[in-house]
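Morning - 2-oxoglutaric acid inputs below, output right after.
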Amino acid sequence: MSISVQAKQSGQGDLNLVANGKVLSTASNRLGFLTPTDPAIGIDAIRRLYEENGYVWLKGFLPRNDVIDFRGWVFGHMAKTGLIAEGTDPRDGIASAAALEGRDVDRCLMSLVRSVAYEGFCAQPRISRFMDELLSGISYLHKRKIMRHVRPGTTTATPAHYDLVYLRGGTSRIVTAWIPIGDIPVEMGGLTYLEGSHAIGVDMEREFAEKNEDLSPEERVSAFNRNMTEGGWVSKDLPDMAERFDTRWLVADYEAGDVMLHSPFMIHASTTNQDRQHRLRLSTDIRYQNVEDEIDARWNNHWTLGDML
Ligand SMILES: O=C(O)CCC(=O)C(=O)O
């Protein structure tokens, strides 16, 4: 399906996606759409797609209403920080226009990522059974689990990176699940993937391993060592990356219930939230591996803002 067809489906016509001050136009040949996968095709076919493409977009994997209810639970708690427009249903996640006290929002978020409810959402049987199958054994969920909310009309966007940079202290057989908690149409700035970039990530990681050989063991696994760019990012300039690697950024209209899986070598980023209905983008990104593989001990703690991972 062409980007313009998809963009029209989401009611936007041609759309300019923005990240770090750079524009990715849906009219450009450097932008395309991710291909959805029906979870019913079975684990072998899913594993093949994951290996071929570096990602699998599992459509409608979780019950939509459960995901929306969890969104309501999160924003119901965050409402006391002033994040949610007064008199609206927390499940809609409509952002208030108020200037917020960042500390209150951060404190609330740090409580929520330590909650039983969030743990249960990430470890729900549908996901844990699937991960056991995908990883051919007993799956392990890293304790450091990230939940992100992005306010509409802000410049927040995740720069391009691949996950292994932050997880070098254990196995590279990691699977990231990025789960939209609510609908995230293209204009709300969900994850975008650099097509075919899992091979690029493998090459980059090999080069870093060579450069890092002389560093201390702690520095060698750090995303912030002297051989890395600030933050461990590959780049903040998404259009330039697509040109440089002669490829495309792939975007999607994600819906509540979808689960995205990506390889730790797959380069991804996000664009800004330009939602005209002022909805907050809410998602979680969590990592699984086979429990028998080496575990990066730095991820054995809950996510803390500024934990330098
Ligand atoms: O949600 C985002 O903006 C970034 C998520 C991410 O980097 C990941 O899932 O690995």
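Note: The chain has one domain: 3-291.

O.
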